[in-house]
Amino acid sequence: MIHHAVTKPSEDDYADFTDVQKQGWDPPTPITLQQRSVWESNLAEVVVTNPCDCGHCPSIGMRPVLRVDDENRDDAGGLGDYVERIILDATVDGCMLLFVDDDSPSYLELAPADDEIYTEFPPPEAIKY
Hints:
Blueprint: E1 6-7, H1 11-15, H2 19-23, H3 33-42, E2 46-51, E3 60-64, E4 85-91, E5 95-101, E6 104-111
Antiparallel strand pairs: 1-4, 2-3, 3-6, 4-5, 5-6
């Protein structure tokens, strides 16, 4: 996902939004190769700290090794002490998102769109960008 996923909404989708819809969304954020390179290099410093226990998905929260015990560091896709958050989007049979907070992956979510249960993430070749 770090290599290929994009932010949502796309520029085309955003162009079709009404003024009210635009108030609820930030404009599309272009992702640079440099950003992707930094995120990839930071993966080595991230550990899983918060596996989802909903029973329907394999979503995982992550924190940098140096902030494992920092309760202010969000690892569930919610609010936290980040300065910049980018959400990358890809699809499988459900919906898959990668949250990147301050250049460090913080939450990988596979949110089922229906009642299906996922016990693990799909293989990379099944992900659509």
